[in-house]
């Protein structure tokens, strides 16, 4: 399959998951870029963050129009996210790939278990 077709399919799946669950950037894009496309982990993580911005803008417009948007929560979480994002982006290249994969995998597993155990 041509590389651009794979990229479009990855983007489509990411968009659908983001629209449905508010997730998809890291959970879909990073593993697919690393294991399906052979992109180096650090570049996959950085690229995923860049992809999330336009995806989030368009999803947010739909959520706001639908009335399922909470401005006070958004503003408070955004403050912490910006500070955390600056820290994370500044240390990304300093974390060896073997640790980056382990940390990412543990977060994915923990999130999966929490979702499965939630009623």
Describe what this molecule looks like in 3D.
The chain is mainly α and 119 residues long. The longest helix is centred in the middle third of the chain and has 26 residues, at 41-66. It has one domain (3-117). It is built from five helices and no strands. It is globular and about 40 Å long. Helix 1 packs antiparallel against helix 2 (25-36). InterPro entries: TM_pro_TauE-like, TSUP/Inactive_protease-like. Pfam families: TauE. Keywords: Cell membrane, Membrane, Transmembrane, Transmembrane helix.
SSE succession: HHHHH
Uncertain ranges:
none
Biggest β-sheet description:
none
Q: What separation lies between the terminal Cα atoms?
A: 40 Å
Multimeric organization: single chain
Mean pLDDT: 88
Sum up the overall morphology in one term: globular
Give the total of domains.
1
Please tally the β strands and state the result.
0
Structural class: mainly alpha
Share of helical residues: over 70%
Beta-strand residue percentage: under 5%
Radius of gyration: 15 Å
H/I helix tally: 5
